[in-house]
Transcription elongation factor GreAB (Roseateles aquatilis), 160 residues
Amino acid sequence: MDKFLLQQQVLDRLAEDLLQTERAARAAHETATHEECIAENKYDTLGLEAAYLATGQARRAEAIRQAMADWRQFRPLSYDARVGIKLGALVCLVDSDDKQQQLFLGPDGGSMKLASGAQFIQVISSEAPLGRAVLGKFEGDQVSIQVASIRQQFEVLWVH
């Protein structure tokens, strides 16, 4: 699995998200400033609501831009069996039902699922609970996380 290809897929998806978010922000801004949305009384809040939405969309766009900058600077390194799992690792976990899942640990802002052939790879940050749990682990180690009232157990099958 080519980590740089995965990185490019993350950047492509973030670029799509940014485009959609910017469109939504423009539409909300146009609604907020449209002459028909001028409040006629204190209960007429369509323009105000659209302004809040435009502000939220603008903040989301800025967060995506920051994530894109982080992902552009990101340089995933090869796995070092002396150090353990770190940012940039491609990890395969297996649960007690022998169900496998692949994770790609990257910078914040790239939480998404990518298709790679017939497989799916979950992109997570080291700040995610599962991301934190696998950091520093080695092939064969056990990983455990608590999700609500359920404890999930995994084994690190392989790391690249």
In short: The two ends are 8 Å apart (CA to CA). Strands lie at 90-95, 100-106, 112-116, 119-125, 142-147, 150-159. The longest strand covers residues 150-159.
